[in-house]
Design brief:
By secondary structure, the chain is α/β, with parallel strands linked by helices. Helices cover 43% and strands 17% of the residues. The longest helix is centred in the last third of the chain and has 17 residues.
Length: 150
Amino acid sequence: MPSNSETSTVLIVENDAILRLSTSELLQSWGHEVIAAGDAVEAFALIEAGARPDFALLDILLGPGPDGIALSCTLRERWNILSIFVSANLQGEQLAQAIRTGPLHILRKPFTETDLRRVMAFARETLTDIPFDFDQESLWRKPGVNDAAP
């Protein structure tokens, strides 16, 4: 986490260029550093080039290529980056799939500035409370799974 607990470095992955730009500008106006990508492939390239966000704000439906759910899983497994999902029509099995990935939050589109500010504060607080060397597997493991028998 950054030394200033009020700001973060956020990876925004949104295929809608106008929403990506407006969200980026809003977060930057609040003092956050923003890394923006239009799809999962571009996001992977930015991370592999050395970008290190504190967390990611991911649209679920990104067009061709990996969706936001697959991207979230890869970000967490390879780089220990947690995600917030953003979606307009998340329901049914897709919602269940998103929840199983253990996002920091799910933000419904269209969202307000107040909604985004609240989610950002929640994400910063949550990430501050997670020890740097936390055990990811215990964070995502379902209760009772792989527990030793008494």
